[in-house]
Amino acid sequence: MSTTTNPKPSICCYCGVGCGVLVEPLKNGDVAVVGNPDYPVNRGALCSKGLNLQYTVNDRSDRLLYPQMRYSKQRPLQRVSWDEALQRTAAVFKTFIEKYGPDSVAFYASGQCLTEEYYVINKLIKGFIGSNNLDTNSRLCMSSAVVGYKMALGEDSVPVCYDDVELADCFLVTGANPAWCHPILWRRVEAHKAANPDVKIIVIDPRATDTCALADLHLQLIPGTDVVLNQAIGRALIENGDVDLAFIAQHVDGYEAYKASVLARSLADSAQLCGVSEADIRLAASYIGAAKGFISMWTMGLNQSAVGVDKNLSLLNLSLITGQIGRPGAGPFSLTGQPNAMGGREVGG
Q1: Mean pLDDT score, 46-66
Q2: Which entry of 2, 284, 313, 326 is 20 to 30 Å from 158 by CA?
Q3: What is the CATH topology of the domain spanning 8-58?
Q4: Domain spans of the chain?
Q5: Active-site positions?
Q6: Mean pLDDT within 213-221
């Protein structure tokens, strides 16, 4: 397969891990895609989704290859030139803006866009058109985590990086199945545990998923009782003396109110409400309490909920009371469904 140009670096769009890929244009117009060995996230590895990127691109049977326009609702789509399509789009936007003002139009983007694309869209809608009406689909899926981060930490930012995985010795995975949904990230966790068998993995999930296969402890809770379970673990940590009082005194507000809240319900009552044993709750707390580096991972199982913010806060509080944040190998690590869910917000989306 001879090429016309050198491979171009890009990012796999299929999940929140954001693996680096090299895209190689071929003379016949197709592309070949391989993992980028120099990219720190995946180090050249790709899962089955990433390995099939090239087939998705090369299959033109169901793709739009040129602009099409429908001049009225009753008329079929017709092929038009790029110039005609762009002129028509601009004319429609201009008509609405002149008649109803700039807030009559909006852009809706995707967490699969590149940061540079987000930037250009922001410049167009905010700087040129003069409207703030820009949103992305990642807003909907990550809004609970965003509010949780801002309430607990003061900023919508994940305080963990991928390299922290190899430095942690306890993982709590809740509301997520990364073995299936974030395979390359989970391969790193698997390799870390294989090299360090004493690493503990706690999985909280009503289901027995592929992620549970690696778990030292599976807390198979009743759906909807996440807050109760997280607070019960917090209570056990307090009772065991596994809280970092010095860190709390220097960096945490509201600890006494939190303590009173989690102590208001006994572990026995929490265990009954959650459908897990009190012994397993205490075991989970002992794993976290003994950890030198504790990372929590979660995704839509917590975020996609009417009480998603409360679920996020109850989990974030475990990192705060133990001081397991702001240092290597420790912190809350929200997993997203798209590789650039943060990018749109970081450039003003």
Answers
A1: 91
A2: 284
A3: N-terminal domain of TfIIb (2.20.25)
A4: 8-58, 68-137, 154-334
A5: 49, 141-142, 300, 337-338
A6: 98
